[in-house]
Amino acid sequence: MSAVEAKLAELGLRLPEVVPPLAAYQPAVQSGVYVYTAGQLPMVDGKLPVTGKVGAEVTPEEAKELARTCALNALAAVKSVAGDLDRVARVVKVVGFVASASDFTGQPAVLNGASELLGAVFGDKGVHARSAVGVAVLPLDAPVEVELQVELTVA
Description:
Elements: H1 3-10, E1 28-31, E2 34-37, H2 60-82, E3 88-99, H3 107-122, E4 129-135, E5 144-152
Parallel strand pairs: 3-4
Antiparallel strand pairs: 1-2, 2-5, 3-5
Helix pairs in contact: 2-3
């Protein structure tokens, strides 16, 4: 077990299987020392646990947990191309999309679910730049979607 996966286990989490693509794309691709993930939905065992807009059908607290699930799914996608999460030298960027009710403005707090997980797992290597964007709708009516860019150590 990698040190990163041991840390996840210490946090009471496990790395899920890679979520299969919903369309014509790859869950993650590597270019040089960087891995870019596709947007990851908060899929659990092949389905969304909750759907709808944050600030309407979904509470900000629920959405924060869903963002954490998205980050776990993104880490699984990173591992699928990097081979080992211990190769992550740094989480460079997190981009998060929040399907928001028209008056909801708490997108940054929702995305803290992903950011806090990455910090807990990677420590200083998990500190990243981030964008938190409110959108009208996401695929499958998901409340949250997260993508990562990570830098790898040279193998």
